[in-house]
Design brief:
175 residues; alpha+beta; Aminopeptidase; 8-stranded mixed sheet; 6 helices; acyltransferase activity, transferring groups other than amino-acyl groups; YpeA/RimI_acetyltransf; Acyl_CoA_acyltransferase; acyltransferase; transferase
Length: 175
């Protein structure tokens, strides 16, 4: 397996994995029409923009095997004054789940954050009904730190949970 920084030409694969995971995990949570008919085009536009005009505090890391995208993580350093660097996306392809890919990506994310924003914490938000992801974040030392509402792109409001780590080094202890 190889981990590398994302390039513009990766946007379609990233969008496809992102959309596929949302379709699997968010069925019954987000609007079915949105998931089936709008999501992929929307994700392509988002990832194309993120890779064409990246924020200065953005990092996107991919993990591949034989040129096939197995997963990715996107971070925004120092995104929140209170919580620190945001892990905005962590996605692992269905066939690669349960094989340590998520931990590998988070270890690389923590290394990236430690290099650029070492003195602040990390956090992410996960949909409250995404029980598998919440269990994973808890198992790697995430602390439940709040329950924000997400204004989802399908127009709904969805309850989320925030998980935090005190620093990149704190996350690295668990992954």
């Amino acid at each position: 397996m190889q981990i590398r920084e994302a390039e513009f030409t990766d946007y379609t694969q990233i969008a496809q994995l992102h959309a596929s995971n949302w379709q699997q995990v968010y069925a019954g949570i987000l609007d079915d029409d949105y998931l089936q008919n709008q999501l992929l085009d929307e994700r392509k536009a988002i990832w194309q923009t993120r890779l064409t005009h990246p924020s200065l505090n953005q990092g996107i890391l991919l993990i591949e095997q034989d040129d096939q995208l197995c997963g990715f993580v996107c971070l925004y350093g120092n995104h929140s004054f209170e919580l620190g660097t945001m892990i905005d996306n962590l996605h692992v392809a269905k066939d690669y789940r349960g094989k340590g890919i998520g931990k590998q990506l988070l270890a690389e994310a923590a290394t990236w954050a430690n290099k650029h924003f070492s003195d602040i914490g990390l956090y992410l938000e996960v949909i409250e009904k995404n029980y598998a992801a919440k269990g994973f974040y808890h198992s790697i030392g995430g602390t439940h730190a709040g329950d924000p509402m997400w204004n989802a792109p399908d127009g709904s409001q969805v309850l989320c949970q925030t998980y935090t780590w005190a620093s990149p080094k704190h996350l690295q202890q668990f992954v």
